[in-house]
């Protein structure tokens, strides 16, 4: 069982939405890039919503999301897991990222979108209890269908339709 450690968020001051995964998979950890698996639908969806598609270099995609007020991070700072599947994460090994500090710094975040069920469950278990009530009161928490290729029961078009609410709430590009 490998100890997996996440990496810093994609975020800029003025971010209005935060997209949370659980923990980067093996391809992402190796590339040090969010959603690096070639069959993950995250970047194709971001391409449709914000022009941050996989045809752009990673840094350009990240910059495009920051310009649109979208932050991306993972709930877990570290965990033990065999392979890349969320189902393989050892719950007792889960350690959350520092959400009180993140949400204090990025205090315009109003909505958190979870990329799948595991991200939501881990946030509610580890992060939400550590947040002050006034912080939780200002946030809308929404689970979206996972963009993982392991979540094959939903078509790309169906996933995209669900994910459109991210762009509905992110708004126009923000000034840096």
From TrEMBL:
SMART domains: UDG, UreE_C
Uracil-DNA glycosylase-like domain span: 8-167
NCBIfam families in the cross-refs: hypoxanDNAglyco
This protein's name: Uracil DNA glycosylase superfamily protein
InterPro entries: Hypoxan-DNA_Glyclase, Uracil-DNA_glycosylase-like, Uracil-DNA_glycosylase-like_sf
